[in-house]
Design brief:
Distance between the termini: 51 Å
Helix content: 55-70%
CATH class of the largest domain: Alpha Beta
Number of domains: 4
Strand order of the largest sheet: 2-5-6-8-7
Radius of gyration: 54 Å
Number of strands: 14
Order of helices and strands: HHHHHHEHEEEHEEHHHEEEEHEHEHEHEH
Shape: rod-shaped
Structural class: alpha/beta
Oligomer: single chain
Length: 607
């Protein structure tokens, strides 16, 4: 579920980034709000202190006025005058402190208030007020009339002058305090609004996007689950089908082997039984190969061995292998070149042959009468080899076409029942064609009229490649019959720890006249190799004492010129590469027919 991991990674990445940005943004907004709030709180403190100082002065003015009046009316003037002087001193100190404090503040609001006090000459009036009060407190010679005049002057200054000014200042301070509170309230609402906007932005930018990703992810997961369930169902059907496909030939093999034990069986019945056992064994082997191929394709472990190959040999061998089947069904079977073809192409010979063999084999399987034609052309502009496989068989419906290249599926259950097979062939062939730089598609089809498949691959030809001048018809080649191979005088060492395999291979090769020696383990093989000169060695890879690779090293130290072939049940491409790199001259796989073994040995002895 790579797409799921990618979505989770991207979602986490976006969430972390967006979360970090949002956190920074929230911290900045909060810091700014706290700063403004702190400023307003400080202003409130200063306003309160300002108001208190002004109110203190007003109270002191009132106290001085009251004491001044008492001096005139009360009999104990000496005591009252002392108290009056004390109040005047306190008031004077308070005024001086107030002016210093006011000048020390950096707020422009206080500067404006200071200017108001200055413009209204509060300092001068305060001085005059204090002087009048002092004259009353310090003079014993003032007449009652003079005291009354001074008291009235103080009262006038207090009521209509200095007191009103200070009360006006207090009123202004109170207004400023109220305005500050309103600003604080407005700022609180702004903060709430900012948080709301931030939440909306975060929702739109992060959570809505995240929600969309989750929905998309859920859809993909749902789709994936549906596909998995479909694939699981297909594989369940495949297992049921493959079980049938395996059991059918196994029934034939086991049954006819039991019949062959009967001594009373006639010659032609024995030959028929042997033929059926052989055919069904080969069918089982092809099933195993297809399952191995699709397993490698699904795990992306298909290895391609690109090299220069002779193109005509591909068509020749395919034609030679399948023409007997076409003759049995009395089908018109032909290979034809549409235009000039390159003599050599650069591709994987085994895989190209596998694709063409599968396509032509399918065409012959699903065609009961009419024709199967293979037409080839070379498109020089794109350096592409194109192969058309046409038949007049059962055809394919549009619905079947959608499933045809899916692993484990065939056209429909009826096709499966009638014609058999694993349903893997076309899926494997298409994947291999894409691995060769091309593709495999249905060009056209009609139910009951036949189908045309088109295979394209990258030909990989070079400028020095010769183009075959004459388009040719059916490919034919001189085929060596294994029954005619004569290996008289050749010494061959067969190494296999399974004695039944050794006896079987001995029986195959003894028919050619070759002298056969058997070794049932790696150590025995090395000893015989050192004691006797052989023309060729067939060496198993997996043995209990020392394996084939270790035996090969020891043999080559003694004599490096004798060809040694790997004869093993390991059929994977990785193992073929490994044996080649180790120094084996060839790689034959078990199970193997007498024909393949004899021709494989003959081919390497001819070199």
């Amino acid at each position: 579920m790579a797409f799921n991991n990618n979505l989770i990674f991207e979602t986490k990445k976006k969430l972390k980034t967006s979360g970090a940005i949002s956190l920074i943004f929230i911290m900045l907004i909060s810091s700014f709000y706290l700063y403004l709030n702190n400023q307003l709180v400080n202003d409130q403190k200063i306003f309160a202190e300002y108001s208190l100082k002004v109110k203190t002065q007003i109270f002191l003015i009132n106290d001085i006025l009251i004491l001044s009046e008492k001096v005139e009316s009360e009999p104990s003037r000496v005591v009252l005058k002392k108290e009056l002087l004390k109040e005047i001193f306190i008031y004077k100190n308070e005024v001086e402190k107030f002016q210093q404090w006011l000048l020390s503040e950096k707020n422009q609001n206080y500067e404006k208030l200071y200017l108001i006090l200055r413009d209204k000459k509060v300092a001068q009036k305060t001085e005059k007020y204090l002087n009048l009060a002092k004259s009353i407190a310090r003079s014993d010679k003032l007449s009652k009339q003079e005291i009354n005049v001074n008291i009235r002057s103080i009262a006038k200054a207090a009521s209509s002058g200095l007191g009103e000014i200070l009360e006006d200042v207090t009123f202004n301070i109170e207004n400023k305090r109220i305005e500050s509170l309103k600003e604080l309230e407005i700022l609180s609402w702004i903060n709430v609004l900012v948080i709301l906007i931030l939440f909306i932005v975060v929702w739109i930018y992060i959570y809505k996007s995240l929600f969309s990703i989750i929905l998309s992810q859920d859809e993909k997961i749902t789709d994936f689950v549906v596909k998995v369930e479909s694939a699981s169902k297909s594989k369940t059907n495949f297992l049921a089908n493959i079980s049938h496909e395996i059991r059918t030939p196994m029934t034939v093999i086991i049954g006819y082997i039991d019949l062959l034990k009967n001594d009373d069986l006639k010659r032609h019945e024995k030959e028929e039984a042997i033929s059926l056992v052989s055919d069904n064994a080969h069918h089982l082997l092809s099933l195993i190969n297809e399952i191995l191929d699709i397993s490698k394709i699904e795990s992306n472990k298909v290895h391609y061995n690109f090299k220069d190959i002779e193109l005509s040999e591909i068509f020749t061998s395919t034609y030679g292998l399948l023409k007997v089947k076409a003759e049995e069904k009395k089908i018109d079977f032909s290979f034809k070149n549409i235009n000039h073809l390159p003599e050599h192409i650069y591709t994987d010979e085994k895989r190209l042959k596998q694709i063409i063999f599968n396509l032509v084999g399918n065409a012959l399987k699903f065609t009961d009468e009419g024709f199967v034609k293979v037409e080839s052309e070379y498109k020089e502009a794109s350096d592409t080899l194109v192969v058309y496989v046409k038949d007049s068989g059962i055809g394919i419906t549009a619905e079947q076409s959608k499933r045809l290249f899916r692993p484990f599926e065939q056209g429909n259950e009826k096709v499966n029942r009638v014609y058999g097979g694993t349903g893997l062939g076309l899926a494997i062939s298409q994947s291999l064609a894409r691995g060769l730089g091309g593709d495999l598609k249905i060009l056209q089809t009609q139910v009951g009229k036949g189908t045309t498949f088109v295979l394209t691959i990258d030909a990989g030809t070079s400028e020095t490649t010769r183009i075959i001048d004459t388009p040719c018809e059916n490919y034919t080649s001189e085929v060596v019959d294994h029954n005619d191979v004569d290996l008289t005088g050749k010494k061959i060492l067969i190494v296999d720890d399974a004695k039944e395999n050794s006896r079987l291979f001995n029986a195959y090769l003894s028919s050619t006249g070759a002298a056969i020696s058997l070794a049932h383990g790696g150590k025995d093989a090395v000893k015989q190799y050192q004691d006797t000169t052989f023309d060729l060695v067939l060496l198993d890879l997996q043995m209990p004492d020392i394996d084939g690779y270790q035996a090969l090293v020891l043999m080559k130290k003694h004599n490096n010129k004798i060809p040694i072939l790997a004869l093993t049940a390991h059929a994977m491409d990785e193992e073929r590469i490994k044996t080649k790199e180790a120094g084996f001259v060839g790689h034959l796989t078990k199970p193997i027919t007498a024909e393949d073994l004899i021709l494989g040995v003959f081919h390497h002895l001819k070199k």
